Structure formats: C-alpha cells, structure tokens
Amino acid sequence: MTLMTRLCSASAAILIVLAACGTAPLTSAGVATDAARDWPQFRGPTGMGASPQIGLPVTWSASQNIIWKTELPGAGASTPIIVGDRIFVACYSGFGVPGRRGSMEDLKRHVVCLNREDGEIRWTKEVETKLPEQERIREEHGYASSTPVSDGERVYVFFGKSGVVAFDLDGKQLWHADVGDNLHGWGSAASPVLYENLVIVNASVESESLVALDKKSGREVWRAPGIRESWNTPVFVQTPEGKTELVLAIQGKVLGFDPTSGKQLWSCATDIAWYMVPSVVAADGVAYCIGGRSGVAALAVRAGGRGDVTRTHRLWIGNKGSNVSSPIYHEGHLYWMHDGLGIAYCADAKTGEIVYEERLPRAGQFYASPLLAEGKLYCLARNGRTYVLAAKPKFEQLAVNEIGERGTFDAGLVAADGRLYLRTNQRLYCIGATR
C-alpha cells in the first residue's frame, strides 16, 4: 500500500467517525495529511472544531498532566497545526507584544516548527513585514492571528498585509503572494484553507476580497470581490446534491461560492447588523452562523441555492449568539460560548430554540473557539481557564483547568494523538496523561 493510499484510507475513516457524530462532512479537499492523527488547519480536519480523539485529559494543572512546554520566539493568537511529527505555529515579536510595546520598525513575523514528541524547536523562519503596519491592534490581538494550513507537503501562512507565504516542511520558503494592502484596527485574523490545487484566503481586511492562489506557485487563480467586515475562516459545505460549496459570512449576509472558480452562487440575509467573526459550521447540507452583539445573532441556511435564498433557504433566526468564538455542531445541537458574558449556550439545530444558557463561574471572555472530542466540549477562556462541559443538551460542567500562566489566551485548543496542545502568548504546552 502506498503512502498516499494509507493517508486517503485514514482520511476516509475519520470522515466516517465524524459523520457518525453529526459533524460537517468535508475536509479541505487539498489536505492530504493523516486525519486520524493530525490537525492540519484551523478548527481541525473538517474545519468544524471536532476531533475523533479518545482518552484526552479532562483535568490538568501546572503540576499535573503537562508533558512538555516550550518557550516560543513570539506572541500571537495563531492556533498550532500538527502534521506528522511536526507542529507549526505563527508568531510575532518586536512590536505590539503585550507588556513590551517596542518600535514598529522592529516588528517581525515568525513561522516556527517544533517536534511533536518533545516540543523542541526544529526551525524558525522570519517572514518579511510590509510596513507601515497597524499602529495598534485592538485588545492586543497582535500581528499573527491566522492559523497556518498544510497539505502534508507544504505549510501556508497568512500575515495580512505582509501576504501569504508557503514553506516546505523543512522551512524552505517556496513563494510569497500579496493579497492586499489595507489595514484595520482589529487587525487580520481569517485563516487560509485548501481546495484541490488552491490556497483560499479571506482577505476582507486587505482588499475586501476572497482570493485563491495556486498551491505550487502562489499565482492568483481567482478573486471574488465584496467581502466586507468579515474576519471568519471559510468552510466547505456539501449540498444535498453532493456539490461542494465554499461558505463564509460577511456583514449582513452568508455567501456561498464555487471553490473552483470563485463564482458567487447564493447569498442569504442574516439580519445581523455587526461585522462577522465566528466561522460557519455545517451538517447535512445546512450552514449555521452566529455573530453580533445585539438583535438577531444566529441563523441556519440550507446550502445549494442560487441567487438570493433568504426566503427559500433560510430555516430560522435567533437572538442569542457570540461575536467572536465559533460554534460546534454535535448530534442535532449547536454549542457556543458568548464572547463577553461567559455564558454557555446549547440550541436545537432544527429550530434554533435555546435548550440551555448557563453562566460559567469566573469565566470572563471567550475568544478561542471550543473543541469537541469524545462527547466533551473544551472551552478556553481568555483568562486561561479551560471549562470542560458535557456535549449534550443538558448542562453539565465536568472540570475547570488552569496551567498557572498569566496572560491572554486567544488561540484554540488542538487535539491530536491523545494529547491536547495549548498555545499562550509565551509558550506552547502539550497536555496528556503523564506517568
């Protein structure tokens, strides 16, 4: 059996498991990593925040279940990705680091590769920063918020105005592409995704565009305009007819595209008046979207339509949502954390009806998106507390964990090979059963 055959077989197996759990059915079609062990993109193999991992730790602390921790060369909200025996993460240093303002001329972006087993840094590559950058990023989100993506052969990293960069797994830079020069007070955040031979980037901040680049050369293949006030990462949704659509949210609308050509296929009004940060989740041909701080804050829309589908394909709207972290779909229910109120929500995915809303003790803000694994939700607050909840329509808190490090926690938790990986502004932690 060839390596590619083994990888494809593993990917097929993982999709069967995830489908049984009710999660969305697609990985990025350009991802050829081992989906049973790896975490190759933002929100995992399917882009929906779900993992098939079992035996993950439920409790940990500074002195319990920490396998290793590694000092990183810079800060950032970028979530790590895992490919084979390597971990990749984006960082920045020299300017705008919490507690160390510095000078803009010293701003540096880094792509870091670590050993998966022991956390040792294999290599660090600096990416040239295109100045001037944003003078300040609101709430210290920083200058490295996008999560890399890998197809098992290359790693693709997005640094906003400074562009998209491709490396091989040993750190050789292969190409660099520009997707726009504009800046925004909230900075840049959407992560790249892969489809067949394309790297697709939500460059709403940089050029109000959705941009597709050739994976091998970085050449622009297509560009879709009109992507305004959008910080979310696009997802792939399979329609009831078996077609693949690329879906993302902008202010006031959810949009569906043909990922091959960039042609916009449909739009659906959200009635959400705010900019859109949470990524869409999907299951059984239905896309679920949350966002905003007041008024309408959630909706469901059936994929596969054409033109304005608000009246024909919008299934429900609701007034409970989140302005930052993305939701989870699991067994007919949606779960999410309110970004500012520390409230955990569960909603019926068919109707949007709220099943429960529970305020978590000492939770504060939630910017990282939750992780679903083995019937549990791992919800990481900005203050460093991870709340482990039962993924069922009856609220149950299983644990609250802290690692004892101060700072702001914006990167999402990653699950791979029976371990959790937690990134802070200073370090990367590997959490798992220790002897």
Verbal overview:
The chain is mainly beta and 435 residues long. It has one domain: 8 Propeller (Methanol Dehydrogenase, Chain A), CATH 2.140.10.10. Helix content is 6%, strand content 39%. It contains 3 helices and 36 strands. A 5-stranded mixed beta sheet has the order 1-30-31-32-33, with no helix packed on it. The two termini are 36 Å apart.
How would you summarize this macromolecular structure in one to three sentences?
This protein has 435 residues and is mostly beta strands.
Core attributes:
disordered N terminus; mainly beta; 5-stranded mixed beta sheet; single chain; 3 helices; 435 residues; Methanol Dehydrogenase, Chain A; globular
CATH topology: Methanol Dehydrogenase, Chain A
How many strand elements? Answer: 36
Poorly predicted runs are 1-25
Radius of gyration: 20 Å
Strand order of the largest sheet: 1-30-31-32-33
Largest sheet: 5 strands, mixed
Amino-to-carboxy terminus distance: 36 Å
Mean pLDDT: 92
| Outline | globular
Mind sketching the topology for me?
Blueprint: H1 3-21, E1 50-51, E2 66-71, E3 81-83, E4 86-93, E5 95-97, E6 100-102, E7 108-115, E8 121-127, E9 149-150, E10 154-158, E11 164-168, E12 173-177, E13 193-195, E14 198-203, H2 204-207, E15 209-214, E16 220-225, E17 235-238, E18 244-250, E19 253-257, E20 264-269, E21 281-283, E22 286-290, E23 298-302, E24 307-308, H3 310-313, E25 314-318, E26 328-330, E27 333-337, E28 343-348, E29 354-359, E30 371-373, E31 376-380, E32 386-390, E33 397-401, E34 414-416, E35 419-423, E36 427-431
Parallel strand pairs: 1-30, 20-24
Antiparallel strand pairs: 2-36, 3-4, 4-7, 5-6, 7-8, 9-10, 10-11, 11-12, 13-14, 14-15, 15-16, 17-18, 18-19, 19-20, 21-22, 22-23, 23-25, 26-27, 27-28, 28-29, 30-31, 31-32, 32-33, 34-35, 35-36
